[in-house]
Design a protein that fits this description.
about 15% strand; alpha/beta; about 400 residues; 2 domains; 3-stranded antiparallel β-sheet; Aspartate Aminotransferase, domain 2; 7-stranded mixed β-sheet; binds pyridoxal-5'-phosphate; 14 strands
Length: about 400
């Protein structure tokens, strides 16, 4: 393409927003007595639980560790099958493998890109134990139907809401609808703790198991001890991990949470600018939104669904990168990764997800984007796509 890009500086697809308040909150913990598993973790957990209207919340060192904990709490073990979406980050399925279960992929809905309840039901066998639903891009999955299927077949529903903090389903915030809901605080997500994750649940039983799993499977709680040999005594009752979040991180999380609703508003506003710019273009499809859900807009995905652009996605991504627009692709269907291919998953397993993967690009979307950044993205996308139509 030509030598002058739309922008001189690179615009990433996502970026955290950190202000002086956040920094002060972290410094305050550094000057305190507890750096980890102190009072600030509890406070962060309470604030997230309150925000999503759940009874319990357990902080983890990452969203991935949190998902692993949820699979443990759900009792996933060798031979158990867990159904999940192929259109997600690998962590949504890896957590099943950590527990020696089998990941089963059910294809997605072609409009919302979320896992299809009908396909879930087709994949159920007598070994199925759980469903991991992903709220893809921030739009909640079809939770009512998924919960209905889960009840019918006695399955646990774990919701991967890494994209969906603040999203709602039929006016209820995600986090208290499924059995366990996972949030991630990686810097590209809505709020950050550097690395970090959380499970919210209304079940006391899951809550206790998650606490144990996070810290070596060790308990000191007198009501849970099998024996009691004295004040020093504790018991390792399960094979757990050190998946604890630090108080330093939790302080950042609390400070960030105060800004979440503002961040969500900005994301929504950016999305409506994108939608207005692209909705009348014949060659692209803007994101579809179900009426009964409110997306938290983690990702803005544009689908290049015209025959005229077929097979050109890679070149379009490269051209946009040359324009200094940090586009990305979310996601490579999980089972197409070499590791999963070696496990024996066939290409063609989920045709809708595979076709979608060939046609999507993720545009920059984060609260720190300026008016000019949005205009640059729109200008560059229109310019690049036009250049591929001639
Ligand atoms: C980010 C993400 C995760 C993992 O979260 P980490 O905090 O990075 O471990 C899991 N699932 C999805 C869909 C994600 O986007």
């Amino acid at each position: 393409m030509e030598t002058h890009p739309v922008r001189n500086t690179y615009l990433p697809y996502a970026c955290q927003t950190i202000d002086d308040e956040d920094i002060e909150a972290v410094v305050k913990v550094l000057k305190s007595n507890f750096l980890t598993t102190g009072p600030v973790i509890k406070e962060f957990e309470k604030k997230i639980a309150d925000y999503v209207d759940a009874k319990y919340a357990v902080a983890f060192s990452s969203g991935t560790a949190a998902l692993h904990g949820a699979c443990f709490a759900a009792g996933i073990g060798p031979g158990d099958e867990v159904i999940t979406s192929p259109m997600t980050f690998a962590a949504s399925a890896n957590c099943i493998l950590y527990q020696k279960g089998k990941a089963v992929f059910a294809d997605i809905d072609d409009r919302t890109y979320n896992i299809s309840p009908k396909k879930i039901e087709q994949m159920i066998t007598d070994k199925t134990r759980a469903i991991i639903a992903v709220d893809f891009t921030g739009q909640p999955a079809n939770l009512a139907e998924i919960m209905y299927i889960a009840q019918k077949y006695n399955l646990v529903v774990i919701e991967d809401s890494a994209h969906a903090l603040g999203a709602s389903y039929k006016k209820h915030k995600v986090g208290s609808i499924s059995d366990m809901t996972m949030f991630s605080f990686h810097p590209v997500k809505h709020i950050t703790t550097g690395e970090g994750g959380m499970i919210t649940t209304n079940s006391e039983d899951y809550y206790q198991k998650l606490l144990l799993f996070r810290s070596h499977g060790i308990t000191r709680d007198p009501s849970l001890l099998i024996d009691n040999n004295g004040p020093w005594y504790y018991e390792m009752q399960y094979l757990g991990h050190n998946f604890r979040m630090t108080d330093i991180q939790a302080a950042l999380g609390i400070s960030q949470l105060q800004k979440l609703d503002d961040f969500l508003k900005i994301r929504k506003n950016l999305v409506s600018q994108y939608n207005n710019a692209f909705k009348d273009m014949e060659t692209v499809q803007i994101p579809f939104q179900e009426k009964d859900r409110e997306s938290s807009w983690h990702l803005y995905i544009l689908r290049l669904n015209s025959n005229k652009l077929s097979g050109k996605r890679r070149k379009i991504v490269e051209a946009l990168l040359e324009q200094n627009i940090g586009v990305n692709v979310h996601y490579i269907p999980v089972y197409l990764h070499p590791y999963y291919q070696k496990l024996g998953y066939d290409k063609g397993l989920c045709p809708i997800a595979e076709k979608l993967y060939e046609e999507i690009i993720t545009l920059p979307l984060f609260p720190g984007m300026k008016e000019k950044d949005v205009m640059d993205v729109i200008t560059a996308v229109k310019k690049v796509i036009k250049s591929f139509l001639v």
